[in-house]
């Protein structure tokens, strides 16, 4: 997990709708990365809709928002179309970025242990340094909390 005030690990990932996104190319403005386990599951859908609903408010605050999961671009395209999502979704199919950000962790559910993405949001400042990290995110109220942190930068 990157630490506060340390440089955020750089990456280039494909996004839904085409093109690649390179984190270092976005310097000069804050970036929000929300890591989520899977497309089209209840919590991930609510979180993605929340960030999409507030996309303009983030833009007005000067920030860009990206969702990141290990789902494929085809899955992201279907998910975005089904729920009319406006926030770009990045595909980390190989899991490298998830590992670099420390969100690929051991999880337990129904007595079974498995590896998966821990719902995490990372706020990166205009200089490319980690400004804030939210671990084990609970969806209700989260988007508004992140937006307030962006506005406070």
Strand content: 25-35%
- Uncertain segments of ≥5 residues (pLDDT<50)? none
Average pLDDT number: 95
If strands are numbered along the chain, what order do they take across the biggest sheet?
5-4-3-8-9
Characterize the structure shown.
The protein has helices at residues 42-53, 55-60, 73-83, 96-100, 142-152; strands at 12-14, 20-22, 31-35, 64-69, 89-91, 104-109, 112-117, 120-124, 130-134. It is an alpha/beta fold and 153 residues long. It has one domain: 3-Layer(aba) Sandwich (Glutaredoxin), CATH 3.40.30. The strands form three sheets. Strands 5-4-3-8-9 form a five-stranded mixed beta sheet. The chain has a two-stranded antiparallel ribbon with strand order 1-2. A two-stranded antiparallel ribbon has the order 6-7. The longest helix has 12 residues, at 42-53. 34% of the residues are buried.
Briefly say what this structure is.
The chain has helices at residues 42-53, 55-60, 73-83, 96-100, 142-152; strands at residues 12-14, 20-22, 31-35, 64-69, 89-91, 104-109, 112-117, 120-124, 130-134. With 153 residues, the protein is an alpha/beta fold. The protein has one domain: Glutaredoxin (3-Layer(aba) Sandwich), CATH 3.40.30.
Features:
alpha/beta; five-stranded mixed beta sheet; oxidoreductase; 153 residues; single chain; globular; two-stranded antiparallel sheet; Glutaredoxin; peroxidase
Summarize the helices and strands and which ones pair or pack:
Layout: E1 12-14, E2 20-22, E3 31-35, H1 42-53, H2 55-60, E4 64-69, H3 73-83, E5 89-91, H4 96-100, E6 104-109, E7 112-117, E8 120-124, E9 130-134, H5 142-152
Parallel strand pairs: 3-4, 4-5
Antiparallel strand pairs: 1-2, 3-8, 6-7, 8-9
């Amino acid at each position: 997990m990157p630490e506060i005030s340390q440089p955020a690990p750089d990456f280039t990932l494909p996004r839904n709708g085409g093109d690649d996104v390179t984190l270092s190319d976005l310097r000069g403005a804050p970036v929000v990365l929300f890591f989520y386990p899977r497309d089209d599951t209840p919590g991930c859908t609510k979180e993605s809709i929340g960030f999409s609903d507030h996309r303009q408010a983030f833009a007005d605050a000067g920030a860009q928002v990206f969702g990141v999961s290990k789902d494929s671009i085809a899955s992201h395209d279907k998910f975005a179309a089904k729920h009319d999502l406006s926030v770009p979704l990045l595909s980390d199919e190989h899991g490298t970025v998830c590992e670099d950000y420390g969100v690929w962790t051991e999880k337990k559910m129904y007595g079974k242990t498995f590896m998966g993405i821990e719902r995490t949001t990372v706020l990166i400042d205009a200089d490319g340094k980690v400004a804030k990290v939210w671990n084990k995110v609970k969806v209700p109220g989260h988007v508004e909390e992140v937006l307030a942190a962006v506005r406070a930068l």
